[in-house]
Design goal:
By secondary structure, the chain is of the alpha/beta class. It has helices at about 5-20, 35-50, 60-70, 85-100, 110-115, 135-145, 160-170; strands at about 50-55, 75-80, 105-110, 125-130, 145-155, 180, 190. Helix 2 runs parallel beside helix 3 (about 60-70).
Length: about 190
């Protein structure tokens, strides 16, 4: 990773942590992934080279920048979904400052609607870092839009495990899916179709 972009990510991470300490409500928080999680995503993306990545939950774009930096081919596509207009504006600004804006397609709107309308098998990698209470309802569409042998990553699998119990049961009941919990950062649940 470019040293200037890495330094920008460090500043953005610090901003997120300071913001979250002051924020009153969940919608005001950035709720960024940890830096070691970002590096894991970067390494996975560099090694695997997924053609299309979907990130559900942009926030201020911290994790998105990790994904975007790892893209090495013009044939790769990164789409990030965010429903909060203020966070969309903040993320766009951060993407421009990090020099990765041209690698990212930002879609503002409801993730459930996007997933429902997306083409089957259209994403090699899907990252869920959004409203955990929606994941069970989204599960059939998340599974449908993920390619065969594709990867689904769910953030907060350790620190918010109780909120994900119903989703994990639904995923475990899906015969074509294998699951593993990676105890890094806030916990990443990896599901392979």
């Amino acid at each position: 990773m470019d040293p200037q972009r890495e330094a920008f990510l460090a500043r953005l991470k610090q901003f997120g942590e300071e913001n979250d300490r002051r924020a009153v409500g969940r919608t005001e928080k950035m709720l960024n992934i940890t830096a070691d999680t970002g590096l894991l995503f970067w390494m996975l993306t560099r090694a695997w080279q997924p053609r299309r990545i979907l990130e559900v939950g942009t926030s201020n774009g911290y994790s998105t920048i990790w994904w975007a930096d790892a893209l090495t081919s013009s044939g790769q596509e990164l789409i990030t979904l965010e429903n909060n207009p203020a966070k969309v504006a903040l993320a766009r600004s951060n993407f421009a400052q990090a020099g990765v804006a041209e690698r990212i397609r930002v879609i503002e709107g409801d993730a459930g609607a996007f997933l429902h309308e997306a083409e089957a098998g259209s994403f090699d990698l899907v990252f869920l870092d959004s409203e955990r209470s929606e994941y069970v309802a989204w599960w059939p569409d998340v599974l449908r839009v993920t390619t065969a042998r594709g990867l689904i990553i769910v953030d907060n699998a350790l620190d918010r495990a109780a909120e994900l119990e119903e989703f994990v049961r639904a995923a475990q009941a899906t015969p074509e899916v294998r699951l593993v919990l990676v105890p890094i950062g806030n916990g990443e649940l990896l599901l392979q179709k």
